[in-house]
Amino acid sequence: MARKYKRLSYEDRKTIEEMCRNGKKADEIAAAMDVHRATIYHELQRGGAGGGNRQQYSADMAQRAI
């Protein structure tokens, strides 16, 4: 069954931020949130975690960017 598109909420972004700080990989975050891994990669870029440094991801920055 194909996944439906899901718009991330601020609470989702806070969850991503927490999981990034706990050292989770994008694939693990995607599986836990039931979204495609590309959604997580785009979200990490939006939240300032470019260049592979997930510790820099900010849910607040990502929320302001949309």
UniProtKB/TrEMBL annotation:
It comes from Faecalicatena faecalis. It comes from the Bacteria. Residues 4-47 form the Transposase IS30-like HTH domain. InterPro entries: Homeodomain-like_sf (IPR009057), IS30-like_HTH (IPR025246). Residues 45-66 are annotated as: Disordered. This is Helix-turn-helix domain-containing protein. It holds the Pfam family HTH_38.
